[in-house]
Each structure stands twice: as structure tokens, then as C-alpha cells.
Amino acid sequence: MTTFADLGLSQKVLSAVTDAGYTIPTPIQAGAIPPALKHRDILGIAQTGTGKTASFVLPMLTLLEKGRARARMPRTLILEPTRELAAQVAENFEKYGKNHKLNIALLIGGVSFDEQDRKLERGADVLICTPGRLLDHCERGKLLMTGVEILVIDEADRMLDMGFIPDIERIAKLIPFTRQTLFFSATMPPEIQKLADRFLQNPERIEVAPPSSTAKTVTQRIVATHDKDYEKRAVLRDLIREQTDLKNAIIFCNRKLDVADLYRSLSRHGFSVGALHGDMDQSSRTKMLAGFKDNQITLLVASDVAARGLDIPDVSHVFNFDVPIHAEDYVHRIGRTGRAGRSGAAFTLVSRRDTKYLDAIEKLIDQKIEWLNGDLTELPPPAESYESAKPKRERGGRRERDRDRDRGRRSETPRAEAKAEARAADSHRPDMKSGETPVLEETNAKADTVKAERKAQPKGQTSARQANRPAPAPAPANDDNRDRRNRYRRDQDDGPTPVGFGDDIPAFMLIAGKA
Predict the structure, then answer these.
(1) Is residue 484 part of a domain?
(2) Under DSSP, is residue 97 helix (H, G, I), strand (E, B) or coil?
(3) Which GO terms are recorded in the biological process aspect for this UniProt protein (predicted)?
(4) 225 and 304, same domain (yes or no)
(5) From CA 404, how far away is CA 407, in angstroms rounded?
(6) Strands (E), 179-248
(7) Are residues 193 and 233 in the same domain?
(8) Degrees (nearest 5) of the Cα angle 125, 129, 130?
(9) Residue 271 maps to which CATH number?
């Protein structure tokens, strides 16, 4: 059986590894360390959690025992996609390099430039950074990359997902062509293969099959829920309260916005909860992780920034508030619990729109995950939220309802009503023959006579019918309606004289108009 002593590491490194409690290397470590010590380029394909970090940290420590770094000219460069992964690599260098006097500089966002500049001025043997912050320092003239001997590109597939590939290409142009490159990725899609071919020179390929199976110590269950977020939050709260053995838990969401919403919801319901996502400043993220590790916080709501690379060994539960879109992320998420032989539990909330993602997960891990309390077909009817319980306002409101009612009442015209009454009257006459309608014909004749009289009547004259009508009764003197009407009449000039004219009328207003 191969041990670390058989890999060619220096005595200082072996002593630190032994003190850490490790004797047997993992497959990726056994395959990558010997060629790395021979200054060969490495193409390593392995998932996070397989000991990949030590596979490049240990040989780098051995190679860095000779020589010293100069100011602003780092000797080695390690690129990581997230701040947490970069910080964890720095912790590994401190643990395994305790017998070395190396300067390690961590350049990540959310931290003051001044403190990082001071580290660079002293000279950095190991530079661990995220691509964006490294380019910021280069543009400010604080870094000279011509002294880099070893370049490590870690989690290259995540770099591709996060859009860092153009930045990596810019960084590679600043580094000498004769460097040694260690390239690690969990998967090898065509884009990553093209990137590897561009950066690597005759590399040693070490491929460890990605773990598509989950740990046997993790109990997995699926919980059926409705699509609405308020329904899912209620189901999650009940699920958390039901866990009698819950010590602490990570709750994963797909989006940073959902992380914030769920954090506020759990806080309002009295849970001890914290949040972790990519938009938080570095001090808040570090403080939140430290509080979770020290059991000051019971629940940590996080995005996938906490799914890979974070080594928190004693997590009892994992809850997937959202089903991960990529099936591989499910393995990484639930891998946060059940570590180092401990038992753990993982619950995933699934709605009807998540079934295709669930199928992909079960296909990847090659097993069916049990439902906790019945599948989606046994879901109770969705509970009404406050918004959906409010009565819906009818379109147009009260005015529209009144208009529809009046329209129904006036569905027939007066002429049609007259015809209907005439037909009803004729139906009761005994002297009527079938097909005859004398009342109807008489009604139509009267209407035609009235129309003819109106057309023949000269303008301004009253007809005999109008003359015989009784005159309207005069309105009382104190009629409010009359005053209201007169108030808006423009032809009344018995009011007060308008201000500005006085008693004299201008001459131009006395000129008679043309007839």
C-alpha cells in the first residue's frame, strides 16, 4: 500500500502530514504528487472532497524550500473561484507548511487593499487569490507576475460557470511561458479541454472517477410541497421542528434572493439562523461561517457557495429548499453532512415543477430516494395565502355591474316593445284571422304620421300636438336647482362689473360688427 513517504515529499512536509494524522494518500494525491515533484504539468480530474487540495499543496511546499520571493514578485500563484475556497487553501498551507518559513498572501474581494499591499511588499512565496482581485492589484501596479514558477488553476469547471475564463486567459499572458501548470477540474467539458490544451505542455493526466454515489451514512428523503414559496417555507419550518436530533443544519437555495427571503422568514419565526451568499462582504461571510462552526448559529441558509470546498465536519442535517438544477450539486450539498463516518440526514423539498431535476439526480446517484410523507399525488390542496383569500374585484367595479344590469333591462328598443305588446293584444281578439295584425299595423301607421308631421313643420313653429300640451308649472322663486343652473349660464350679464373695466366701456368694444 502506498504511503506519503513513498511519494518523494520532503521531510518537513512528511512531518506536518503525520502530525495532521494522515498516512495513506487518496488516489488523486498518489497520482498527482510524484509527477508534480518532477516539474511536469498536471491535468487532474477529481471532485471536491477527494483530497485534491493536498495533491498540489504538498508538492508545492517541497519545491518552495529552495529560494525566496522578492517584493511584489510572487513565486507561485493559485487561482480559486470563490473566497471560501481560497481561504480554505490558505488554511491548508498554514497546516502543512508549519515547518516552513513561507510568506502566504491571500488576495480576495471584500478585504482592504492596504493590508494586502503590505503582504505583497514583503514578498509572497504563495499567492492565493480570486481572478478579479488579482487583476485589480495588477492594474494598480502592485504586482509583477514575471517571477511565477508554478500556476495552479483549481475548480476550472466552476470558473467556467462563473465567467472567469476570460480573466484567467488575461492572467496567463502575464506569467512566463516556462512555468509549471497544475490544472484541476471536476468535469472535462469541451470548453475546459480547450483551455487545458492552451495552458498545459505535455501534461500528466490523472483522472479519478467523480463520485456519483452518496455516502451511506446520510439518510436521504424527499418532501412533497406546493410551488408557492410561502407553502415551501411552512413545510420547511415544520420539517425542522420535527427533527429531534438536529444539532445544526445548512439550508441550500438556488438563488441569492431566495437566501435573503428565507433568512428573514426563519428569523421572524424565532429560529437561530444566519445567511451566506456571494453578495455579502468578506468580513460578514467570515463571521457567519465562524459562528456556524462554533455552534453560535443553528441554521445556515446558503447558496451553492457553501456546497463545495467548505470543510465543516459536524453538520447533522442538510435541507434543500430548492432542488439543485445540476445533479452534481446535489451530491456536493448533501456531502456537507455525514462526514468522517458520522451519520447525517438530508431532506429535499420537491414540487411538481422540480420533477425533471429529481429524475436527473436519481439517475446520477443510481438509486431511488424515498418520499417522507407521500409523493406529489398525495399533496393536500394548497392553503390560501392572504392575497389569494381576498375577494377579487370585479372588472370595472360597481359602475360596470350597474351598466351590465341596465343594459339587460334595455335589451329591447321601445319599438320592439310596442310590437310585442301589439302581438299580445291581437292574440286575444276573437275576430282575428291567422297572419293578421291590425293593432300592430295601426301602431306603425301612427308612428309614420308623427314623423311626417315633424318633417313638414317649418322651423320655429309649434305643431298642434305640441300646442295642446299643458304648460309646465313655474318653479318656485327659491328653487335651488334653478340657481345652480343659472350659475353656469354664460349669457347672464346682470352680475357685478368685471374688475379692470370699471364704469367706462372701451371704444373698441362699441364698434358694431358686420352683419
Answers:
(1) no
(2) coil
(3) response to temperature stimulus; ribosome assembly
(4) yes
(5) 5
(6) 180-185, 204-207, 218-224
(7) no
(8) 160
(9) 3.40.50.300
Show the DSSP H helices in 8-51 as ranges: 11-19, 27-37
Quote the crossing angle between the two packed helices 355-365 and 327-334, to the nearest 10°: 70
The helix-helix angle for 165-174 and 131-139 (nearest 10°) equals 50
Cα-Cα-Cα-Cα dihedral of 123, 125, 129, 134, to 10°?
A: 40
Contact 45, 207 (CB under 8 A): yes
Average pLDDT, the chain: 79
Say how far apart CA 353 and CA 322 lie, in whole Å. 11
- Residue ending a domain, choose from 343, 360, 385: 385
Residue 23 lies in a domain: yes
Q: Are residues 64 and 154 in the same domain?
A: yes
pTM of the model: 0.61
Residue with cell 478585504: 111
Among 359, 385, 411, the domain-final residue is 385
- CA angle 442/445/446 to nearest 5° reads 90
Q: Tell me, what DSSP letter sits at residue 70?
A: B
Strands of 344-350's sheet in order across: 273-276, 299-302, 249-252, 317-320, 344-350, 218-224, 370-371
Distance CA 350, CA 161 (A): 25
Which of 40-54, 284-298, 424-438 shows the lowest per-residue confidence on average (mean pLDDT)? 424-438
Q: Are residues 147 and 225 in the same domain?
A: no
Q: How many domains does the chain have?
A: 2
Could you tell me if 310 and 88 are in contact, meaning their C-beta atoms sit under 8 angstroms apart?
yes
Give yes or no for residue 459 having a pLDDT over 70.
no
Range of the domain at 39: 4-207
The rounded distance, in Å, linking the Cα atoms of 187 and 26 is 18
Q: Are residues 133 and 167 located together in one domain of the fold?
A: yes
What SS3 class is residue 212?
Answer: coil
Helix locations, 433-479, DSSP H: 438-456, 464-467
Co-location of 278 and 201 in the same domain? no
- 166, 262: one domain: no
| 130, 81 Cβ separation under 8 angstroms | yes
- pLDDT surpasses 80 at 437: no
Which residue shows C-alpha cell 352680475?
495
* 473 in a structural domain: no
**Would you say residue 27 lies in a domain?**
yes
Q: Which residues sit opposite 152 in a β-bridge?
A: 78, 182
At 300, phi and psi to the nearest 5? -125, 110
Residues 97 and 166 in one domain: yes
